[in-house]
Amino acid sequence: MNFTFQQKVAIMFIDIRNFTCFASKKSPEEIALYINAFFRIVINTVSRYNGFVNQFLGDGCLVTFGTPLDPCNLSQNAVDASMMILRNLDKAVQNGEIEQTKIGIGIHIGEVVTGNLGTKERYQHSVTGSAVILASRIEQLNKQFGSQLLVSEDVMRSVGQLDADPVSFRNVPLKGWHQPVSIYKLA
Questions:
Q1: Are residues 63 and 53 in contact, defined by beta-carbon separation less than 8 angstroms?
Q2: pTM of the full predicted structure?
Q3: What is the DSSP letter of 152?
Q4: Please, what are the domains in the chain?
Q5: Please, what is the average pLDDT of the chain?
């Protein structure tokens, strides 16, 4: 059953850095154990901030804030969750619960189409639209800037308190995007 509607959400993309190199030296079982330990940290953290892991994307994931869960404090919840993911991941590495892991996180807020996407044979709750693409492109910029957390200017305008001193990057060109964007490094 296809049921979709337009809604404002915060979109977070998370990707593990250098995963291919890591996985090339591990057995399938070791990779599965590692990925599950990583996703456990992400899922437990975003759930506390009313986020929802919408899709697993190999060594990363797409998280939404505002659908299908509570549509309040979208940007603040996304930023707070991302900062907590970084802290929880560092703690898990220090405690020997997971191998050394670096990630990239990108966050944007905007209008999307959300709901059950697909066909009657196979569908899932998902989000789509240019805001999703922009969040993905922002996450990819972490490689270029040597950062772990980048957010769009729209996110920065809608958050209150930050646990970080943002560094601004203006007029950043994005792959396949029609105009440069301003982004902020939070970690």
A1: yes
A2: 0.93
A3: E
A4: 3-185 (3.30.70.1230)
A5: 92
